Amino acid sequence: MPARSAVSKELAKLLGVLSHPHRIRIIEELRDNERDVNSLQGLLGVAHSGVSQHLAILRSHRLVAERREGRHVFYHLSQPKLAGWLLDALQFLEISRTEAEEFRAALEETRSLWGEPVEQKN
Predict the structure, then answer these.
(1) Residues 6+ positions from 37 with CB-CB distance below 8 Å
(2) For the chain, which terminal residue's Cβ has fewer other Cβ atoms within 10 angstroms, N or C?
């Protein structure tokens, strides 16, 4: 398999793992602190089992690692730069939002130029 194809395939897998809002939130919540499932549950407002499932996916792709302390399991980012990468990605949302606002303004301008439909009297 050519190098670019292999890299593209792996990058697509990574983006697939990141394609769920709760997993993105987990990564952001782990940006500066390690946390256990209960604290993540409280922060995300998601069921304990849901948080555990998302953590399992992140662990299986080596994005999150765990540390055990007795019966407690604490999670942290195995690649902390990932949180910064997600923060950098916000600029693309800003561009999209600006374009959407410009389009919305264009719609309003067109409505006013075209005028409201006149009701016909019977």
Answers:
(1) 48, 51, 52, 55, 73, 75
(2) C
